[in-house]
Amino acid sequence: MLNDNHRWAKLMRMTENKRQILEALRGLYHNGEYFEYGPPPYCSADVVLLAGGNVRNTSRTLKLMEEQGLVQSETVMRAQLCEVPKFGHYPRPVVCYWSTETIEDDQARANAWKAGAAERQRQALEKYLNWLTVPDR
């Protein structure tokens, strides 16, 4: 019985790596905007870009964190860069993760961000077109 308790205590340790992963799962969010990687949920490759590390170890840690109840996973379709059947982006199912502690806030912010996508695209196009028409750049 001592071995089982010791093993569980070791699994439940909140390491610095787990803290960094949980912070990364919140996203780079400031004043209503997500920077660079868009809103959560994030796959293990996204977490590596946000927090560092490598994909294999991060995937393993995320699965362990899900068993511990620290994160929740869902499978989403994402455009992934592939070389087969020909080079391009293709929709593929990807396991992505939310922090269980902040999932409601993160989902609300992500939904609001997605709802404003058309307006952000319009503003970006307008800025680009204005930039093109300014003489002597």
CATH homologous superfamily assignment: Winged helix-like DNA-binding domain superfamily/Winged helix DNA-binding domain
Number of strands: 4
* CATH class value: Mainly Alpha
Q: What Rg is obtained from the alpha carbons, in whole angstroms?
A: 19 Å
Uncertain stretches of 5 or more adjacent residues: none
Q: Largest sheet, described in full? A: 2 strands, antiparallel
Shape: globular
Q: How many angstroms does the end-to-end distance come to?
A: 73 Å
Beta-strand percentage?
15-25%
Q: Order of strands across the biggest sheet?
A: 1-2
How many helical elements? 6
CATH topology: Arc Repressor Mutant, subunit A
Mean pLDDT: 84
Number of domains: 1
SSE string, helix = H, strand = E?
HHEEHHEEHH
Structural category is: alpha+beta
CATH architecture: Orthogonal Bundle
Into which percent range does the helicity of residues fall? 40-55%
Write structural notes for this entry.
There is one protein chain. The strands form two sheets. This protein has a two-stranded antiparallel ribbon. It has a two-stranded antiparallel sheet with strand order 3-4. The chain has six helices and four strands. The protein has one domain (2-132): Arc Repressor Mutant, subunit A (Orthogonal Bundle). The mean pLDDT is 84. By secondary structure, the chain is an alpha+beta fold. The radius of gyration is 19 Å and the shape is globular.
Key attributes of the depicted protein:
137 residues; alpha+beta; Arc Repressor Mutant, subunit A; two-stranded antiparallel sheet; 6 helices
